[in-house]
Write a structure and sequence with these properties.
The chain is mainly beta. It contains one helix and eight strands.
């Protein structure tokens, strides 16, 4: 389990680069059956270029009052070697829910198990259109259609 994973995003548009990060990624992974569930409070993203940019993200694009959280739940496709201290490349298949719209996705990442910790990392893109996030024509050159997302988390193993 983790309660302090990191999720960050970059919108690299022709006229503006928008970046933000949250250290409030919560989640759990069962390495035996390879199931997982992660969620993040959309209003926990910080580090925007300006307060106005952050306000627009919360109110106009993510609509955090209507859609307070985003999540990814599913199963890791590959078997995980629980005894290997080496980094393992895996694919996670599940439902990515952003802005109230769920899309089935396969996201490639890495997992490393050492001692009582599991480290996970993933980089992927999110098309705004897939999650019905509308960008007004007046700012379309300031917001990318494809958002680059990075996830990093260290999970602590729990025994039952």
């Amino acid at each position: 389990m983790t309660r302090s994973g990191t999720a960050s995003f970059i919108s690299n548009a022709p006229l503006e680069i928008i970046k933000a990060e949250s250290t409030e990624l919560y989640g759990a992974l069962n390495p035996v059956d390879r199931t997982f569930a992660f969620t993040i409070d959309n209003a926990s993203f910080k580090g925007f270029n300006s307060d106005l940019q952050q306000e627009h993200f919360y109110e106009n694009y993510m609509e955090t009052q209507l859609y307070p959280a985003s999540s990814f739940k599913g199963k890791i496709i590959e078997e995980i070697d629980l005894n290997s201290g080496a980094e393992q490349v895996v694919r996670a298949k599940g439902m990515l829910d952003i802005h109230g719209v769920s899309q089935e996705r396969i996201i490639k990442g890495t997992i490393k198990i050492k001692n009582d910790r599991i480290e996970i990392r993933a980089d992927f893109t999110v098309p705004l259109e897939d999650h019905q996030i509308k960008v007004p024509r007046v700012v379309y050159q300031k917001i990318a259609e494809m958002i680059e997302v990075s996830i990093n988390a260290e999970l602590t193993l729990k025994s039952e």
